[in-house]
C-alpha cells in the first residue's frame, strides 16, 4: 500500500509538470490520434479493396487493431520511460534514480508520465465501432465485453513485460534502439493484422519468441469466432503474467550489474 501511495503521488507530480505546457500536451495528443487514425485508415482501404484479409472482415480487423492499440496505450501511459531507458544509461541520469529512496523501476515509470488521451479516444472509438458491428450482425454477444476488457489489460501487461525485458538488455549492451524496433515496434505492427497472413516461421516468432499475438489475435479467436475455447483468453493472460515476471527478473539481474557512467 505504501508503494502504491508513493506511485500515485509521483504520477500526480509528473502530470502536473506536463500540464504546465498545455498547448504542447493537447497538440501532441491530437497528433498521436491523427497518426493512429491514418494507420487504421490504411488497413481499412486494403479491406475495402479486397473485402477481407484471410477471411477476417473489416470489423474483425478493427477489433484486433483496437485491442492491441489500447493495450499499448495503457502500457506507454504508465511506463513511458521504460521504453526510453537507453537515454538514461547513456547520459548517466539513471544514477539519480539509484539515489532516491524508492525502487528504481518505480521511479523510472513515474518520470514523464505520458497522458495519451488522443490515442485512448481513437482506440476506444474503433473498438466501439467494431463491437457494435459485430453485435449487430449477431456474430458476438454482450458476453464479449468483459472478455475484451481482460484481453486489453492482459495485452498491456504483455507489452510491458516485453518492453521491460528489452530495456533490461540495455544494462549489458547500452544501445537498444534497434532491438526495440524489432521486439516492440515491428512486432506490434505485425500483430495489427490476422496472424494467418504470415508464413509459418513468422507465426512461430509472434507466438513463441516475441509472443505479441497473445495481446489480441489469440483471445480474439475465441471472443469473436468461438474457436478453441475460453482457455485461449486465460492462456493469453497467463502468457502476459509470465512475460511480466520474466521482464521483472531480467530487470533485477541487469540492475545488479549496472555500472555508473561516473559522471
Automatic annotation (TrEMBL):
Keyword RNA-binding in annotation: no
Pfam family, one: ABC2_membrane_6
Membrane spanning stretches: 23-47, 97-117, 124-143, 149-173, 205-224, 230-251
Superkingdom, taxonomy of origin: Bacteria
Tagged with keyword Chaperone: no
Keywords: Membrane, Transmembrane, Transmembrane helix
Name the record gives this protein: ABC-2 type transport system permease protein
Species of provenance: Paenibacillus methanolicus
